[in-house]
Amino acid sequence: MSELDVAKKIDTFRLKISSPDGDAFSGEVSAFFVRTTEGDMAVLPGHAPLIAVTVPCSARYVTHDNDGDPQEHVVKVTGGLLSVDNDNVALLASKRD
After folding, report:
1. Comparing 21-25, 29-33, 72-76, 90-94, which segment has the lowest mean pLDDT?
2. No. of helices (H) and no. of strands (E), the chain
3. CATH class label, 3-95
4. Domain ranges across the chain
5. pTM of the full predicted structure?
6. Phi and psi (nearest 5°) for 68?
7. 95, pLDDT greater than 80
8. Has residue 89 got a pLDDT over 50?
């Protein structure tokens, strides 16, 4: 493996954001930020398992392009349920306009 390949290796986890209208996102991310009833939280690779209730917010997640550059995305959601387990993260919530 070259130095460039090592520099581009980014730890990720699987994120799925679902709503009654369908999936808003499903893919590999390196970070996910959301607001829960307990306050703002960040989910990173290797996060401890948890279940939390979310509140209306602009949830953010970070993907990476083919060059390894980060790309931040925003999804406005209503309250819902967040589940984190073994690098699989699921948010079940309605999207806001």
Report:
1. 21-25
2. 1, 8
3. mainly beta
4. 3-95
5. 0.87
6. 90, 5
7. no
8. yes
φ, ψ for residue 4 (rounded to 5)?
-65, -40
What distance in Å separates the CA atoms of residue 71 and residue 83, rounded to the nearest whole number?
A: 23
Judge whether 58 and 76 are in contact, CB under 8 Å: yes
**pLDDT tens-digit readout, 33-64:** 999 999 999 999 999 999 999 999 999 999 99
Query: What does the block give as tokens for 14?
Result: 């699987």
Q: How long is the chain?
A: 97
Is 78:97 a contact under the CB 8 Å cutoff? no
| Count of CA atoms in the C-beta half-sphere (13 A) of 16 | 11
Lookup: tokens for 25: 């996102």
Is residue 41 within 8 Å of residue 50, measured between CB atoms? no
Q: How far apart are CA 55 and CA 66, in angstroms?
A: 33
